[in-house]
Structures are given as structure tokens and as C-alpha cells.
Protein 1
Amino acid sequence: MQWGHDPKLAQLLDEVQRLKLSRRSVLRRAAALGVTGSALATALAAAPAPARAQSKTRIRLATWAGADEANELQGVIDKVNQEATNFEIVSEPTPADYYVKLQTTIAGGTAADLFWLSQEYIAGYADQGALLDITDRLEGDSRPAANLSDYFEPILRTAQYQERTYGLPWISQPVLLYYNPDLFAAAGIPEPDDTWDWQRFQEVAAQLTDPSKGIYGTAFNGWPPVQMFIWQAGGEVITQDLSSCPVDSPEAIQAAEFYASIIFNEEYAPSEATLQEQGFGEMAKAGKVAMFFGGAADDLDYAHKKDPANARMKVALVPKGPQSRTTFAWTASTVIYAGTENADAAYDALVALTEGIHHWKVVAPRQSLANEETITASVPDKQESAPTIIKAMPDMRSFNIIPRHQEWDEIFWNEFQDPLYHGEGTAQELAQSVRPKLEELLP
């Protein structure tokens, strides 16, 4: 900007605007340039005030994070906020009754701009009109976290409904077989390898079980999900087109019977009462369960580093079923509230936050980040397990989700799984009875 015909005065005023000089600095600089005080005062009075920095839009983020996880998440958010120019994310963790409180805020129109949803909730919330459709925004976004072709397809599908995208997945946890190498060595049994199938797994579980010592080969309690074994047998509980629930197919029955033969059976696993008394995962950490199915992000493989009282555990691929080694992957997404007043800023925050979380949580659901280096950088204690995690990822998948999935799950558990595990009917009888009820809930 030019001020009259005095180049020295113009230079000084440009410096005032550009460098935001203090009054003392202005006077000192004016004296050095030979600009008179009266000329400076006149020019400053006429000059426009320096432009103020644009304020950032406040974007609220609701999560179920507990204290430790919320602290780690805040570190991710701080970095995102530091780089952002148009938004500032404010974390609102609600670990207790998360979904009850979330539903209440949505009903009242006061939900956070962004919030977390586990895979089984996204279709239902999208169907209710509670989520912002981000499909078109993603198509014009060149940022890596917005590149849908980079996501593992079965994981991305959990954030989509009716061919539209409603969120970005931030984690994909393939189930692995955690095992206690000391218990294997004591029994003289070779550690699990890629040749293991259901039969070998069950044989070794029996060999490692000694109820008199409180040691069991494995532990089931509804986890891992029976669906994983049904998929491995070539079956399905909800078809991908969401049109049927073939839980009574020969493949599904074979898997359900295999699962039922192990759960709560002290030839292989703790009784239900023992699990309730001693804790499910706690028994594995205490060295009382030799083989435990856990997610890739679980700390079982490095818990002994944090507390020497915990048993040392390693990881292997899950045993192969009759048709495949498909493994279940738990996943969750961050979504945008449809009623947000700041859709543009919320979308920018979503993409930036997703990128940050992908370098925090194990495993990032993107093919370009499915490598040992990213996993180890995110969680250094996962270095030894990283190769096996990467090996499991091509075989991972999630549930086929329907809008009324919570109702579906409740019926599948109460009228099929629970009675089967307690000997209140055969898999075939229960499956044939429950199938019509499950299919009534399909879209």
C-alpha cells in the first residue's frame, strides 16, 4: 500500500502492517528512517487497522473414550488443531452409557458435531436421518484419509448405507490367536503355525487343559463371535445383499456345533461360573488360558512388559476353517451429525482427525498404512506382532449391517446362541426356529 509520495513512510507503514510492530518499535524504526513524528501520526491515523486472525469454528467430538484413551486422543486432537485454520475440535468423552446419552442428544437436537459409532450402529443412525451424507464431499477431496479406494473394502462398507458414505472408519481390528508360549513349552507342544485348523486347535486345547491346576486350553463366552466360524465354514448369518439370514444352512450349523462343543466345556475351556468369577481376559493375562482370541489392538502380547505379573503371550493367525481363514474385524467410524450448524468445518475436521487417528490406533483400515512400520510407529510394543497382524488383514471382514441390527443381535443371542451354549436345543432346531424372526428385521 502506498502512502503519499514519501517512500520511507510507505516502507515503515508496510512494516507496521506486516510485522505488527509495537509502538516503541515503530518510533525507533521511524527515527532510523528519518520519518518525522507528525508525518507518522497523520499516516497511522489514516491507515486501516491490521486484519485480525480469523477465529476457528468450534467442533464438538463425542466419544466413548475412557480416561487413558481420552488422554491419548487429546494428544492427537492437539496436533490436528494446531495445523487447522478453520476449526478447533473439542473432545467430549462419555465412557458411561455412551449410546443412551448420544441418542438423547440426537433426539433433542443437541448432539456433538462429530461422534464415534461402532460398526453395528451406522446403518441404523443413517436410516434415521441422524448422519450427514458425505459421499459428494469425499469425491472432491484429495486428502489421503478421504481416498475411499485406499480403505479395505469390507471395513469401509460398515460406514456405508444404501451405497452412500456416512463416516470414515478409524480402526480395523482383525482377530488373532494370542497364545502362552510357556504353557506350550511346558507341555512339549509346538507353537501354533499357519497349518492349524479347527481340529488341531481343539486337540491342543484339550491337551493343555488341566482343571485341577486351573489351566485351560482356550476360553469362549460369546467372544470370539460365532459369525467368524460360520464364515470360515462357508456360511453366513446375513447375506451381503441383506436379503436373508441362512443361519440354518449346513455350513452355519457345522460352525455353531463346533463353537458349542468348546464353550463352557471344561475339556477345553473354563466353565461359565469360572469365567464370571475370574474374568474373561484376566484369565489369559494370569496365565490360566493358553489360547485366547483377541483383537489386534489388545495388549495381551505386551501386558507382561507393563506388569511382570502378567503372562507372556505371542500371536498367531486364527485356525483355518473348512473353507477359509476369515477373521472378524471390529471397526468403528467417526460420523457427522446431520443437524450440525457447521457442516463444512465439521467435514474438514472429520478428515483431519481420521488421518491423525490412523497413526494412533492399530490397525488403520487403509491399505497404504497396512505395514509393519506404521503399526510399530503407532504402538511400539506391537513390533514383534506386526508381521502376523499384517498377514491377517487380507482375511478380515466385519458384519453385514442392517438398520435394526441391535434388535437382530438380541434375538440371535437370546433365541439361538444362548440356548445352544446351555444345551437347550440343537443347532439345527434353534436355527430353523429363529431364522424367520431374524429375517423379519431385514430391510
Protein 2
Amino acid sequence: MRLTVNDESVELDDGACVTDLLAKMGIAEKGIAVAVDWVVVPRSEWHEQLSYGAKVDVVAAVQGG
């Protein structure tokens, strides 16, 4: 299945979820937020299947001032 992640095309296996996506991209699950089609996804729902063509935004928290 093809998704758009942070404005770049990504190919995942059918039935993939947010945790699968993060693993494929090598992104640690701590300190990030994920939105799918402009809706923030609670960490408790990251195991739910993503839809073909979904727009996913992954944002990392940064420290500083």
C-alpha cells in the first residue's frame, strides 16, 4: 500500500499500522506525535490498520529555546 509520509511517498505491506511504518522508517516511538489525514492518532490506536493513500505526518518533539 502506498502512503504519503511527511510529504514523501512510502510503500508498506497491506494491513500495516503506525508502528509498522515507524519501524520501517527507523523512527523511535518515544517523543513523537502522529497524525493521519490531519487527525492526531493516540498512541493507544497506533496498532490500527492504515488506509491506502493516507496522508501521515510524523512530528518529533525537540528541546530548546
Protein 3
Amino acid sequence: YFALKDVPAIIQALELADSEFAKTTAETLRKRSPLMLYVVLEQIRRARQQTLAQDLRMERDMVRHCFYLRADRKSETLEGIRALAVDKDHHPRWSPERIEDVELNEVAQMFASPWPAHSHPLKDLA
């Protein structure tokens, strides 16, 4: 399933499959942040081609994006924390709400480093 080309294809295949694993997995994924499902899939695929230092820099960039508040996009991480630990309503308000509504430019933003290469916090990793 997870070798399929993108998140919608993965979810669709899981939902159409005739196994308890597939149906349970699809239900679980449908409850997670749609944006972050795309981001994590891209992260895994990129990491396959990276050195450990490159991967750690990418992950540091992503952590910054996950917690940094911006006017044009709320933090999915903070929304998940709100829903599970703060308000404990277990109803996160993801943005976007549906997997089918994720825009690929939003995913790409998560991989743009907020630091120039010369001042990245992990620039000295080899």
C-alpha cells in the first residue's frame, strides 16, 4: 500500500482492501492531519536518498515549521496537542480537513529550510 504514488492512492487502496489491517489503517490515517500525512510520506521518500547529516538537517527544518506560528497557516502540531492534551476533546480541526484537499505547495513549504545554508543550526554536520 505504502509504495503507491501518493496519500490519496494509499488511502483509497486501504479502503478498498478486504482485510482488517487495511480497514483499520485507513480509519486511523483518516483521523490524522491530512497535511502531515503528505509531509511524512515525502519525508520518508526524500530520506532514502540522503546522508544522515542531510536527513537531520531536513528534520530540523521540519520541526521549525511544525512549531513556528505563521499568520497564513496554523500549526498542525499545536492543533493536535490542543485536541489531545489541552482541551482533551479529541477533535482536532485540521487545515485542510480532508486528505483530498491538501495542496502540494503546502507540502513543499515544509521542506524549505528557514535558514540559509551558512547559518543552519546543523551546518557543521558531515
